[in-house]
Design brief:
Blueprint (H helix, E strand, L loop, with lengths): L2 H5 L2 E3 L5 E3 H7 L6 H34 L1 H7 L10 H27 L11 H4 L3 H16 L6 H7 L2 H13 L6 H17 L13 H27 L5 H23 L1 H7 L7 H23 L2 H23 L5 H23 L1
Antiparallel strand pairs: 1-2
Helix pairs in contact: 3-14, 3-15, 4-14, 5-12, 5-14, 7-11, 7-12, 9-10, 9-11, 9-15, 10-16, 15-16
Length: 357
């Protein structure tokens, strides 16, 4: 038998094409051809476009939902008071968010089956992280109703901008992510823009808010900032984990804490008048809005970051003013248009600063 012939013997691919062993040996250690590199670049581009599209959709949804949130809260009041229990409303929001997460998970299990990343069972080390943001969101959400006792809608919109600064600072401290100088300048511009857009040219005072209102606004800003950044850290700690599983555990603890709040604050009222006493169509729409907003926030944190959530919320405040033109006769002013311009520049600078970081 000729050894030379064996060395140069041929092998066949699955499609029947003959290739010599020498041909296979010659391919070892060589980089991909230009055509292979081009194919990889195309696939990467498609992935980036899909990721950008998903991020844009959830951010747009959050912006629209947030812009109608304060309007629904104000509309849900009757004669200046909430006839329903705000603790039961918060409990309903958490329950609805939990139910939506379970429904989505059920569809995923039917399509993909139960995997390590989408199963509900988990370890104590993972679950023990969720009570902290759940408790913070409970207090913040309750304050969101009671702050209107001390401030009006424009005053609330201005004070809400404190959340922008607290989020940026906590984002740096907790997640250890440095914000560029351009991004820091964008934060200041964003605060100035949102504040300018809400100024009342007919008043000599920017705010006529008592100390209680300022204290509640500062507490809300700190709670919202810390809870948001902490939740983002939890969600991104295990990127492969299905977002609906992470949401489920967060909302379970949210339901538990809100149940405790009902027992402490409104137990007698719920027992005597019923859980849904004082609910109206506006109240139901408000609960649905809050539930979808919460899910949209978690999606933004999963596929974008908490800074994007803050900017989305800020743009929503301007959209609220636009909607108010048609609903309550809000008068557009020069200050409003200047505010929109400054906010647009701030958003651009934030994006540019993120690229240069």
């Amino acid at each position: 038998m000729n050894l030379t012939a064996d060395t140069n013997s041929v092998e066949k691919d699955e499609d029947g094409t003959a290739r010599s062993v020498d041909d296979f040996e010659s391919l070892r250690g060589k980089s991909l051809s230009p055509s292979d590199n081009s194919l990889a670049a195309v696939e990467e581009t498609k992935f980036d476009r899909g990721k950008w599209k998903r991020k844009s959709v959830v951010t747009l949804a959050l912006t629209i939902l947030t812009s109608s949130q304060s309007i629904l809260i104000v509309w849900s009041k009757r004669a200046g008071k909430y006839e329903y229990s705000v603790t039961t409303a918060n409990f309903s929001v958490e329950s609805l968010k939990c139910a939506i997460s379970l429904v989505v998970l059920g569809r995923i299990w039917k399509i993909e089956g139960v995997t390590e990343d989408n199963r509900l069972t988990t370890t104590l080390n993972e679950v023990i992280l969720y009570p902290i943001p759940a408790a913070l969101y409970l207090v913040k959400n309750l304050l969101q109703y009671y702050i209107f006792v001390y401030v009006d809608a424009p005053g609330y919109q201005i004070l809400k901008n404190l959340n922008i600064i607290s989020t940026g600072v906590l984002y740096r401290i907790i997640l250890k992510k440095r914000l560029s100088e351009i991004q820091c300048a964008a934060f200041i511009l964003l605060c100035a823009g949102c504040t300018t857009a809400q100024l009342n040219s007919n008043s000599d005072h920017v705010l006529q808010t008592p100390v209680q209102g300022w204290v509640m606004a500062i507490v809300m800003a700190l709670l919202s900032g810390f809870a948001g950044v902490y939740t983002e850290a939890i969600i991104k700690k295990r990127p492969s984990r299905n977002i609906n599983v992470q949401n489920f555990w967060l909302y379970i603890f949210g339901m538990a804490f809100n149940a405790v709040a009902i027992l402490i604050q409104d137990f007698d009222a719920v027992m005597n008048k019923g859980f849904f006493h004082g609910y109206s169509l506006i109240t139901i729409l408000m609960i649905l809005n809050h539930a979808l907003s919460g899910i949209a926030v978690s999606m933004v944190m999963k596929y974008a970051d908490n800074i994007v959530k803050v900017y989305s919320t800020s743009v929503a405040m301007l959209l609220t003013a636009v909607v108010s033109v048609f609903l309550s006769g809000f008068q557009l002013s020069l200050a409003f248009f200047l505010g929109i311009t400054v906010v647009s520049v701030a958003i651009y600078l934030h994006s540019a600063g993120k690229l240069q970081r």
